[in-house]
Design brief:
Number of helices: 13
Order of helices and strands: HHHHHHHHHHHHH
Shape: elongated
Distance between the termini: 9 Å
Structural class: mainly alpha
Radius of gyration: 24 Å
Helix content: over 70%
């Protein structure tokens, strides 16, 4: 176990190093000039050049990257060009809101997705199965901003059940969580249906039924624990999807998380914030996959870590 974790941590460092390099290259090639964004449209060329020198933007690419990497190794994510604040401080202030939203989204997608998948598997070949699979297909296909705007219009504007936007109460969390979890619910429903149908065909399920065990006990005690194993791995992968979708959802609902911070930084070409959010998101994805890999053997001892 310890050797496996150590190996994965080494891989994580290499992955983050590669992500930082690729992201830095892409930002370096962007035609927008951060110095011009800071100076303003009316600033003179001399003012812009002075800002560029102060920020080190006039240096060759390799020197800029090595400077950033040196600070990163010391735990320094840099300083925002426009807000004049440490990136680590900005991310730390926004991260709790994003983690709360992510937890709510995972809960929603598991609640809706697994319920739909189990019902569809038990009602296989019926109209209920077809209806639930069509609903899951819509969930997988629909853009998140469309789902968010539709939920806002129906439940916030027309019915007035939830606030239009903001942060601070449980009511503020409901609609963003459903919007972010809607895509995952569709995937989980389809995956759970296929997995449960396959498990219900196994010999040990028929044996359990032959012993007189009730259908509910067979389902809860034997079928679901085995059918849910692929779902655990999907949760770790989902963190990556959340990090990409959270930018859109937070912008639609005015949620003050790192997604909204990243969107504002992209609009202003605030490179340190973009780099910081990218690396934090990458860490979350790698950590999520590692946790999923570690939990799976605890549920099914037949699965070994290698």
């Amino acid at each position: 176990m310890l050797a496996y974790i150590a190996r994965r941590l080494i891989q994580t460092v290499l992955i983050l190093l590669g992500i930082s390099l690729v992201t830095f290259v892409l930002l370096y090639l962007v035609p927008a000039d951060p110095a011009r964004q800071i100076a303003g449209r009316s600033a003179t060329a001399a003012t812009v050049e002075n800002i560029r020198q102060q920020l080190g933007l006039n240096l060759p690419f390799h020197e800029q990257y090595l400077r950033y990497l040196s600070g990163l190794l010391n735990g320094d994510l840099g300083r925002s060009y426009l807000q004049r604040t440490e990136v680590s401080t900005l991310i730390a202030s926004r991260l709790p809101a994003s983690l709360l939203l992510m937890a709510g989204a995972i809960l929603c997608e598991l609640l809706f997705g697994l319920t739909m998948g189990v019902i569809a598997a038990l009602k296989r070949g019926t109209r209920t199965d077809d209806t639930l699979m069509i609903a899951s297909f819509i969930g997988v296909s629909a853009p998140q901003f469309v789902i968010g705007i539709l939920l806002l219009y129906v439940f916030a504007v027309q019915l007035g059940w939830f606030p239009i936007g903001g942060y601070g109460t449980f009511a503020h969390l409901v609609l963003p969580s459903i919007t972010l979890g809607f895509l995952g619910a569709g995937w989980y429903a389809r995956m759970m249906r296929s997995s449960l149908i396959d498990v219900l065909r196994q010999d040990y399920i028929r044996t359990a039924r032959a012993t007189g065990m009730s259908r509910t006990k067979v389902l809860l005690g034997h079928a679901l624990p085995n059918a849910i194993l692929p779902i655990i791995a999907m949760i770790g992968i989902d963190i990556g999807l959340f990090m990409s979708g959270i930018v859109v959802v937070e912008s639609v609902f005015g949620w003050p998380g790192i997604g909204q911070l990243a969107w504002q930084a992209i609009q202003r070409v605030d490179i340190p914030i973009i780099m910081g959010v990218t690396l934090v998101s990458a860490c979350a994805i790698v950590l999520g996959n590692l946790i999923a890999d570690l939990i799976t053997p605890l549920i099914d001892p037949r699965i070994k870590l290698r």
